[in-house]
């Protein structure tokens, strides 16, 4: 990460990009990587909502670690990110905005069996039966981003 | 450079859309965001919209300064689910009045297709579409409090019960929970209230609350009908403010978030299905509040608008009516449900006072909610094509229903008999008879 470089991070754009590509892969019968991208898309989308809720960012635009918090905070991956959203709710400066959009995503728990390490796993070991649920939850995240866009918060 | 204010910004975009040469096949819409900032939206992919037109719109958007949401225009590609955004029912054809020219003459009003995102008050613009499957709902509303609205509601409930009607009262005045005190002894209040329902609904368990939400009021006791009450607050409430602080939250559902108005509509429907009333009377919160919007626009078959002859009252109603007036489709849905109640009518100079009130009410409706009839329109044509009742039309929304001032009802306790300092049936009829009669008539018309 550059300390003084330009803003290169856009969680909103990357969420849309990963979600779109996940759909392309799924339609091309590539569920393993599609599932990985649905999870990444949802993570990016959640971070876009957190930035819109005034969670501080560093100079490249990526989320900063909350002061006094051990671990990665909101920089966690699923499923720990879901727990961070609960544990660190009080660290979100504009909690009302965050609640408005997070309440549009009732099925984040679908990512309880998603791991970023899946990208290293053998095909047969992947929980491919969960891809549909990951897609559904990621779709909810995209709908929340659409709403935030409509509201002028993104 | 002149500072652009909230109302300037919308005028400016309406004028831009009129002035620019834009492709007719892709009409340009306007989104006003939660902060009042604006941006243009076009229902096509960015690649299908001519670049010169896009650049012209971007330039106009930039001129809005702090009232531009961003530099970006919205196209279908801006959304994961563009149909949900572009096809939602919240897009309304909206009139944008212009300022005057140098000679003081107003420029013609322009019309735009606007999506107006608001933090509160969205329900004022989302009228219920009558489905004819529910009992008639009468909302009692006062722009200002202290005009005897709840007392009138109590008397109308009694009057209807006397005719053998089964009446259900629902208290929406959550921030001033008092209807139950007026119409129910504390010990007869049900365990849970409307506020409990809203909180439990947030965790998806409101269904089981219904059976403990309604109590029987002694007001209906001596009559052939009955009066049941869903109060704002339950009997043994110990933490009301903590619940109230959460009651208005949007609640997630399979079909997206449910807003307050939608949730209250679901609650009233569930109560109606359970209690099977002939008529539902809703005590709305006063003021321009979301609870009032949910009641008047979202639920009422009839909305009784209580008013006294004070400048503040007229100004408040004018603002509400003008909000509707800018959206012609909303006006057409709402105006015939309304009826003005002249509350606390003074006894001195009664006739003259009522005439003055009637004139002001007529002028208010004529200037905002009634159609403007173009000069030279033939009378029969005007009647067929335009909704504009005459001032003397007793059935028109502006024609006041009179409730007289009577000090006996100031600290009124309906459970007291006349010899205990309460009031007689004749005294109730003398003060509230016209209103009871009016509501009864409205119910009869509904049945026909």
Summarize the model shown.
Chain A has 154 residues and is mainly α. Helix content of chain A is 49%, strand content 0%. Chain B has helices spanning 6-19, 51-62, 82-86, 149-162, 179-183, 194-202, 240-247, 260-275, 290-296, 311-325, 328-334, 350-368, 379-385, 425-447, and strands spanning 28-32, 38-42, 91-96, 110-116, 136-142, 166-171, 214-216, 226-230, 279-283, 302-307, 338-345, 401-404.
Characterization of this structure:
The complex is a heterodimer of chains A (154) and B (448). Chain A has 154 residues and is mostly helical. In chain A, 49% of the residues lie in helices and 0% in strands. Chain A has helices spanning 11-27, 31-52, 80-87, 95-102, 131-150. By secondary structure, chain B is α/β, with parallel strands linked by helices. In chain B, 36% of the residues lie in helices and 15% in strands. Chain B is built from 14 helices and twelve strands. In chain B, strands 7-8-6-9-5-10-11-12 form an eight-stranded mixed beta sheet, with helices on both faces. In chain B, strands 2-1-4-3 form a four-stranded mixed beta sheet. In chain B, a hairpin with a 5-residue loop joins strand 1 and strand 2. In chain B, helix 4 (149-162) packs across helix 14, helix 6 (194-202) packs across helix 7 (240-247) and helix 8 (260-275) packs across helix 9. The longest helix of chain B is centred in the last third of the chain and has 23 residues, at 425-447. The radius of gyration of chain B is 25 Å and the shape is globular. The N and C termini of chain B lie far apart (62 Å). Chain A binds chain B through residues 16, 19, 99-100, 103-106, 139, 142-143, 145-146, 149-153, and chain B through 31, 33-35, 37, 39, 69, 74, 78-81, 84-85, 115, 117, 249-252, 256-257.
């Amino acid at each position: 990460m550059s300390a003084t470089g330009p803003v290169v991070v856009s969680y909103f754009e990357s969420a849309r990009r990963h979600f779109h590509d996940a759909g392309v892969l799924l339609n091309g019968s590539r569920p393993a990587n599609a599932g990985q991208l649905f999870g990444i898309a949802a993570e990016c989308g959640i971070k876009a909502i957190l930035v819109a809720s005034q969670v501080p960012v560093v100079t490249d635009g990526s989320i900063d670690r909350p002061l006094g918090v051990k671990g990665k905070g909101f920089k966690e991956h699923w499923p720990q990110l879901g727990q961070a959203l609960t544990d660190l709710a009080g660290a979100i400066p504009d909690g009302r905005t965050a609640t408005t959009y997070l309440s549009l995503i009732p099925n984040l728990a679908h990512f309880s069996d998603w791991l970023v390490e899946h990208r290293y796993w053998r095909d047969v070991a992947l929980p491919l039966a969960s891809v549909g649920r990951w897609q559904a939850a990621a779709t909810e995240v995209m709908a929340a981003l659409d709403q935030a866009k409509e509201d002028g918060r993104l | 450079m002149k500072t652009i204010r909230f109302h300037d910004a919308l005028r400016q975009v309406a004028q831009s859309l009129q002035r620019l040469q834009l492709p007719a096949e892709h009409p340009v819409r306007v989104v006003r965001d939660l902060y009042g900032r604006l941006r243009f939206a076009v229902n096509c992919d960015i690649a299908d919209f001519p670049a010169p037109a896009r650049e012209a719109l971007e330039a106009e958007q930039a001129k809005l300064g702090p009232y531009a949401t961003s530099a970006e225009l919205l196209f279908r590609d801006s959304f994961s689910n563009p149909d949900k955004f572009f096809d939602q029912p919240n897009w309304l054809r909206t009139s944008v009045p212009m300022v005057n020219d140098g000679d003081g003459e107003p420029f013609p009003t322009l019309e735009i297709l606007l999506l107006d995102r608001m933090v509160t008050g969205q329900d004022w613009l989302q009228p219920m579409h009558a489905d004819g499957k529910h009992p008639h709902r009468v909302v009692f509303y006062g722009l200002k409090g202290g005009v005897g609205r709840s007392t009138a509601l109590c008397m109308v409930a009694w009057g209807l019960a006397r005719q053998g009607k089964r009446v259900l009262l629902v208290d929406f005045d959550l921030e001033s929970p008092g209807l139950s005190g007026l119409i129910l002894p504390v010990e007869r209040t049900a365990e849970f209230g409307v506020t409990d329902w809203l909180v439990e609904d947030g965790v998806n368990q409101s269904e089981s609350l219904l059976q403990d939400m309604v109590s029987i009021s002694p007001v209906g006791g001596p009559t052939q009908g009955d009066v049941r009450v869903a109060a704002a607050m339950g009997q043994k409430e110990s933490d009301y403010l903590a619940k109230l602080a959460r009651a208005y939250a949007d609640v997630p559902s399979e079909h997206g978030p449910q807003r307050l108005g939608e949730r209250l509509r679901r609650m009233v429907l569930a109560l109606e299905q359970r209690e099977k009333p002939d008529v539902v009377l809703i005590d709305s919160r006063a003021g321009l509040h979301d609870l009032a919007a949910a009641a008047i626009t979202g639920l009422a078959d009839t909305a009784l608008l209580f008013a006294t002859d004070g400048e503040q009252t007229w100004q408040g109603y004018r603002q509400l009516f003008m909000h509707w007036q800018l959206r012609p489709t909303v006006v057409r849905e709402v105006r015939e449900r309304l009826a003005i109640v002249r509350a606390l009518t003074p006894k001195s100079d009664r006739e003259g006072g009522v005439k003055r009130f009637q004139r002001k009410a007529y002028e208010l409706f004529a200037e905002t909610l009634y159609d403007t009839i173009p000069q030279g329109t033939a009378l029969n044509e005007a009647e067929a094509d335009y909704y504009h009742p005459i001032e003397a039309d007793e059935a028109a929304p502006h024609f006041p229903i009179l409730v007289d001032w009577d000090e006996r009802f100031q600290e009124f306790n309906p459970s007291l008999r006349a010899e205990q300092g309460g009031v007689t049936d004749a005294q109730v009829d003398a003060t509230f008879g016209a209103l009871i009669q009016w509501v009864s008539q409205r119910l009869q018309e509904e049945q026909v």
